[in-house]
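Re: the 115-residue chain
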Amino acid sequence: MLLLLCPDFAHKIARDGLGVADVQRMLFDWTRTPIERWPRGYWPKLEAHGYVESDGTVPLAARPEQFLIAVAGGESGHHALYFCTFGLTWTVSRAFSLEAATWSGEYCELPSAAT
């Protein structure tokens, strides 16, 4: 899961003494859903995979660090976006690179800065 914050939100969070790990921990703790809110057909799969906690809730992530936090945008107001995974999946990050010789997609040149 990715939480994309505007710079102003990020500034306020940092000003209040919270770091990325703190926000990840808060999201991990606060985003548990009672299994009763899941479609009944999912219950056996959730239970079989061990996703149901002892209090009957299902966390949205297996670990706090699976909540990715990013900052983007400018000074255009207070905005945040949340991008979730689909179904019973977890966020995975892997490094990758695009080699110029193998890239066959379309692209456009960025305009040069006026001097």
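The two ends are 41 Å apart (CA to CA).
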